[in-house]
Design goal:
By secondary structure, this protein is of the alpha/beta class. It has one domain: Vaccinia Virus protein VP39 (Rossmann fold, 3-Layer(aba) Sandwich), CATH 3.40.50.150. Helix content is 31%, strand content 17%. It contains ten helices and eight strands. Strands 1-8-7-2-3-5-4-6 form an eight-stranded mixed beta sheet. Helix 7 links the parallel strand 7 and strand 8. Helix 2 packs across helix 3. The longest helix is centred in the N-terminal third of the chain and has 18 residues. The chain is globular and about 70 Å long. The relative contact order is 0.17. The protein binds S-adenosylmethionine (SAM).
Amino acid sequence: MPRSAAPARPALDRVHQGDCLEILTRLPAESVHLAFADPPFNIGYDYDTYDDRRTADDYLAWSRRWMEAVQRVLRPDGTFWLAIGDEYAAELKVLATRELGFTCRSWVVWYYTFGVNCRTKFSRSHAHLFHFVKDPTTFTFNDDAIRVPSARELVYADKRANAAGRLPDDTWILRPQDLPEGFTADGDTWYFPRVCGTFKERSGWHGCQMPEQLLGRIIRASSNAGDTVIDPFGGSGTTLAVAKKLGRRFLGCELSDAYAARIRERLAAVRAGQPLDGAPEPLKSVPPTARGRRLRKATRRS
Ligand SMILES: C[S@@+](CC[C@H](N)C(=O)[O-])C[C@H]1O[C@@H](n2cnc3c(N)ncnc32)[C@H](O)[C@@H]1O
């Protein structure tokens, strides 16, 4: 009697077009060091294939299924980072911790500029990044790999500043040169800066894709060279491109044929060891622009 062949194990170091639920079932259990997931937020965003308008119950049931699939493939010392919007942040955190048994190490708020401008509520200027681990005592966290210069060094040029820098806080601002215009009274991240006047403006930004520096911080902190990193929701392929640049093995899933094709092109154009896009230390490395100088002057006056 003919025996049916076992489903093929998906190859590493590429994106696979298809449903992450199906692709992840073909990965061996406990084989992945780090999963980063930026799923659709169920807010009616226009993807070319996926319909981002589910009922809340359906979205939550689906989230449980793909998170269980992630949990199965993660090693016992593995890490799971989840990016999510306000709409489902609370439910998905409870699902991950209370129902699936992950431990939440950090609830990071990523502050960003250029969100959608709102008129009858505060404009959204943040997303949530949950840092979950499977085992609360055994996990990878490379603090030395993600240190940032301290305010003592950057703002006050204080000679006593630790040259090794400090760990970032749990509100991440990847482009601090945007601060003078970024923290506005109508935004929903409220910040009252010290009068420091060192901010610079930098031009150039990627449209809808996540910044490489954000993924760089996550991948450097939560995995080591040669480890396997997966992204169930490839999008433009940022996680995979950064994993490749940082010398990790990687695997991505992407439902859309067209997006998957573009990810393949992006991956073909990057190589291990190449620097990440964006400035790692914007205050130090980005020259001031005329606009940035005007904003800094205005901040000093106010
Ligand atoms: C928010 S985007 C990810 C963006 C990505 N982090 C980046 O930096 O470009 C979510 C992606 O998930 C894809 N997607 C939705 N459902 C999927 C599924 N079941 N399996 C694989 N991909 C899916 C969508 O097509 C979309 O491209």
